[in-house]
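Quick note —
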Amino acid sequence: MILFFGTRPGKTRTVALSGVSCPHCGSRGQLTASSTANFIHIFWIPVYRLGTNLLAECGHCKRGFFKEDFTTEMKQALKDRLG
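Predicted structure written out below.
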């Protein structure tokens, strides 16, 4: 019997952080946050969530921010919108 297992990303959720200013360029309302969960799968069926990747990008200066680089304002807005 052949057993297929591995890791795969789940669906990506994208949320606009409308009231938040970019820490790099200072423009307000240009940030977009993306959240993607990674899963262990067996036969392409997700079984267990390994973790979640959070990224944010400014639409004005195109600067990307990892979860570790989020300001408190970005974290609060993301918490309010994603739950």
